[in-house]
Amino acid sequence: MWTCPTCTQSFLRTHQSHSCLDKTEADFLRGKSEVTVSLYHHFLAQYRTIGDYKIHPAKTMISLAKNTRFCSIFQFGRNFLDVCLPLNQVYDNTLCFHKIGHLGDKLTNHYVRFYDKEDLNEEVLFYMRMAYEQDAEKGLRR
After folding, report:
1. Distances from the Cα of 107 to the Cαs of 3, 121, 132, in angstroms?
2. What is the pTM of this model?
3. Which CATH topology does 22-141 take?
4. Its domain of life (predicted)?
5. For the chain, which residues make up each domain, given as ranges?
6. Which residues contact 32 (CB under 8 A, 6 or more apart)?
7. For 117, how many CA atoms within 13 A lie in the half-sphere containing its CB?
8. Torsion of CA 132, 30, 36, 48, to 10 degrees
9. What is the pLDDT of residues 107-137, one digit of tens each?
10. Please, what sign has the CA dihedral across residues 30, 38, 36, 85?
């Protein structure tokens, strides 16, 4: 692991490209509805049942990382939370993703929108776990 001396973020590779920003988790939550903040904390708690991670605020999103970033919370809506899970193949045989977009040759972004805590169901947890485990495999292959 390499730690940027400027922003103190940890990365899998030495001198990995990133943005050194001073934006915090609190900056993203400031002014958001109680519903959105509650969904955010529920989402983080559910991911903690899968494994440990670090929170990495960036310019436009908050990412979760173990070895690399395996999930991004990219929109804090008035009454919803949008999350992106990069997976190593397309999973279009489910209704839990409202959008799927390719990200190069190896990963495909799968987008989930949560309006209620119940939207984070067993099926979504399955894909969250998959994204987390793909990240763990990356750490083993380095």
Report:
1. 25, 23, 13
2. 0.83
3. Aspartate Aminotransferase, domain 1 (3.90.1150)
4. Bacteria
5. 22-141
6. 40, 76
7. 10
8. 30
9. 899 999 999 999 999 999 999 999 999 876 6
10. positive
